[in-house]
Amino acid sequence: MQRADGRAPDQVRPITFELNIAPYAGGSVLVSMGNTRVICGVMIEEAVPRWMKEQNVTGGWLTAEYSMLPYSTTTRKPRDIVKGRIDGRSTEIQRLIGRSLRAVVDLEKLGPRTMWVDCDVLQADGGTRTAAITGASLAVAVACRKLAREKKVDAPPLRKLVAAVSAGVLDRNPIVDLNYEEDKAVTVDFNLVATEDGDFVEVQGSGEEATFAQSQLEEMLVISRKGIADLIAAQRAVLARLMVTPPAS
Predict the structure, then answer these.
(1) Distance of alpha carbon 12 from alpha carbon 122, whole angstroms
(2) pLDDT per residue over 126-172, tens digit each?
(3) Residues 6 or more apart whose Cβ sits within 8 Å of residue 57
(4) Which residue among 3, 23, 117, 207 sits deepest, i.e. has the most Cβ atoms within 10 Å of its Cβ?
(5) Which residue has the higher pLDDT, 246 or 81?
């Protein structure tokens, strides 16, 4: 199957990571997957939520927020603050981002502090939630490295990298990393979050006014895992370069 942009069914879009996009953040990344661009920033607060204190829960906490900037889509998207509430989609996505990152961060090693992860969509062309998770994983890795360098923790609390990718069924063919036009056209909507060693964090899949066969599900899993392996490799390449770069004074 030949896709409109020339990619193979199991091929993710070109991905780039630009570090330190927000200098005041502990770690920040501008992630681009094709034409989808998301800014991911991490801030560390030297305190934990009140519920942790009340329930005597040890360690730290990680939480995420997600938003689409008004100019991220072809028609202006009003800010949530204007509507007086966060829309249901944004709530779902930020919870997904938080779950995905807590699965790979050792909250005990983080200590009594809160890691805030903010993901803001600069440009949307499909796969904003998966790009946010993939970029945020790298931003968290940078922030954890900084905590260790500043001797606030004994070792970086990030246990492993995590990434996410979308998939779907288009004209009965499973494809990975959908752009907006593909996302509108697919009959199955699928998202996979997995760690660098291949363990699943979350699997989301639903038919869009259609059903899908087990064979299609299995094929989406195969191409999604390949896509995640490609994304993890891109994350690792950035971290490898970072390790040989002298830290900022």
Answers:
(1) 20
(2) 999 999 999 999 999 999 999 999 999 999 999 999 999 999 999 88
(3) 48, 51
(4) 117
(5) 81
The C-alpha angle 236, 242, 245, rounded to 5 degrees, equals 155
Q: Using only the alpha carbons of the chain, give its radius of gyration.
A: 18
Helix H, strand E, coil C: the string for the chain is CCCCCCCCCCCCCCEEEEECCCCCCCEEEEEEECCEEEEEEEEEECCCCHHHHHCCCCCCEEEEEEEECCCCCCCCCCCHHHHCCCCHHHHHHHHHHHHHHHCCECHHHHCCCEEEEEEEEEECCCCHHHHHHHHHHHHHHHHHHHHHHCCCCCCCCECCCEEEEEEEEECCEEEECCCHHHHHHCCEEEEEEEECCCCEEEEEEEECCCCCCHHHHHHHHHHHHHHHHHHHHHHHHHHHHHHCCCCCC
Q: Provide the residue type at 155 as one letter.
A: A
Supply the pLDDT for residue 244.
Answer: 58
Tell me: the pLDDT tens digits for 83-119? Answer: 777 778 889 999 999 999 999 999 999 999 999 999 9
Q: Are 96 and 202 in contact (CB under 8 A)?
A: yes
Closest by CA to 61, choosing from 13, 6, 109, is: 109
The b-or-e profile of 20-48 (16+ CB within 10 A means b, else e) is ebbeebbbbbbbbbbebbbbbbbbbeeeb
Return the pLDDT at 209. Answer: 76
